[in-house]
């Protein structure tokens, strides 16, 4: 299935990546995914490897999944129409809410990761965690995910 998107290089459409809040998907050991709104994200080169660095507060359920669940995550940049999904992903916790269901988000199986991406997003990145470190903010932790594959929707490729 094409899902109306194409594979792109990791640094293409980087302005859209930077400008918009992301939806970070992580997964527990039983392969149940969770989604969280993510503003603090960068794309950078880390020893010649394209990497997304996500900054996640220790209190998030997402932090628990990134450290104790599957060693991967995806970052998805929603289209403007998906503002309600960003609100739900950023206001509720996966500890007690199925945010995919609540927000009406559909997933697409990962091509290179166990963690899925999110349908109808303008950009999606499948990442494998290669490094983590404390951030300057005591409350947050950095997760560096090697970008294994990236996609852009037909909507932004045009
Ligand atoms: C627009 C927006 C951006 C956010 N960006 C971040 C972020 O970069 N890092 C972070 O730790 N929390 C961020 N949050 C907060 C989390 O998304 C929020 O606490 C969420 O409910 C955590 O879900 P979880 O407990 O299922 O992991 C953001 C929230 C919103 C609304």
Topology at a glance:
Elements: E1 5-8, H1 14-19, E2 22-27, E3 33-38, E4 41-46, E5 49-57, H2 61-68, E6 72-78, H3 83-91, H4 99-103, E7 107-108, E8 117-118, E9 121-134, E10 140-153, H5 154-157
Antiparallel strand pairs: 1-10, 2-3, 2-6, 4-5, 5-10, 6-9, 7-8, 9-10
Bound molecules: flavin mononucleotide.
How would you describe this protein?
With 158 residues, the chain is an alpha+beta fold. The protein has a single domain, classed as Pnp Oxidase, Chain A (Roll), CATH 2.30.110.10. Helix content is 20%, strand content 44%. The protein contains 5 helices and 10 strands; from the N terminus they run βαββββαβααββββα. Strands 1, 2, 3, 4, 5, 6, 9 and 10 form an 8-stranded antiparallel β-sheet that branches. Strands 7-8 form a two-stranded antiparallel ribbon. β4 and β5 form a beta hairpin. The mean pLDDT is 96.
List its salient traits.
158 residues, 8-stranded antiparallel beta sheet, 44% strand, binds flavin mononucleotide
Note poorly predicted spans: none
CATH C-level label = Mainly Beta
CATH architecture: Roll
Percentage of helical residues? 10-25%
Summarize the structure.
By secondary structure, the chain is of the alpha+beta class. The protein is built from five helices and ten strands, in the order E-H-E-E-E-E-H-E-H-H-E-E-E-E-H.
């Amino acid at each position: 299935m094409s899902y109306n998107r194409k594979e792109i290089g990791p640094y293409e459409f980087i302005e859209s990546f930077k400008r918009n809040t992301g939806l970070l998907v992580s997964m527990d050991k039983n392969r149940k995914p969770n989604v969280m709104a993510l503003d603090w994200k960068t794309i950078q080169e880390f020893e010649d490897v394209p990497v997304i660095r996500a900054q996640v507060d220790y209190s998030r359920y997402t932090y628990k999944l990134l450290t104790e669940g599957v060693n991967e995550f995806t970052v998805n940049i929603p289209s403007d129409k998906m503002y309600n999904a960003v609100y739900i992903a950023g206001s509720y916790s996966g500890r007690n809410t199925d945010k995919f269901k609540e927000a009406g988000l559909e997933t697409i199986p990962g091509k290179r990761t166990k963690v899925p991406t999110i349908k109808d997003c303008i950009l999606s990145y499948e990442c494998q965690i290669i490094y983590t470190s404390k951030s300057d903010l005591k409350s947050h932790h950095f997760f560096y995910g090697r970008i294994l594959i990236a996609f852009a929707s037909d909507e932004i490729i045009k």
